[in-house]
Amino acid sequence: MRLAFDEAMGASEQNGRPLLMVDIDGVISLHGVPDGSAIEGRLCTVDGFVIYLSQTAAQLLLELQDDYELVWASGWEERADEHLPHLLGLPRGLSHLRFERAVGTSHAHWKLEAIEAHAEGRPLAWIDDSLDAACESWAAEREAPTLLVRTDPRRGLTDAEARELRDWAAGLS
Fold it and tell me: Are 67 and 170 contacting, i.e. CB atoms less than 8 angstroms apart?
C-alpha cells in the first residue's frame, strides 16, 4: 500500500516534502505582546490593525522549509503574501488557501475542506492555535500521515513546536 501511495503522489509532491499548513493569527501574529519571553518580534500595522508579529516564528518557518512545503492556511489568504515577506523576511509566492465560507470563527474546522482539497492525499502537518475536535477527527481519518500542532496564541510557533514538526517529518522517510 505504501508503494502505491508513493507512486500516486509522485509528481505532485514537491521534493518529497510533506505540506505544512500554517495559520497566521496565534502562530505568527500573536495575541498580545509577549512579556519578558524569548520571543522576538515587533508591533506593526496590517490593514489598519496593530498586531505583534513574531520574528521567532518567522525564523522557525524559514528553517522548516527544508522539511516542508509551506502553505498559508489562514483567513489572511493572499494578504499573507502581500504583508509577511516584507515584514518578516518570509519567502514570497507561497501557496495560500481560499475558503468558501466566512472566516473568523473561533475554531479551525472551517478550513478543513480547503486543506483537504489542496493536500490531494499528501502527508501534511497543520499548525494552528484553534484546532478543535472536528480537526482531530478529520486528521485521524485521513489515509495520508497527518499531524496537528497547537500553539499558545500568546507565544505562537516556538522551538518546541518546530522540534515536533521536524521530528515528525524526519519520521516519514
Answer: yes
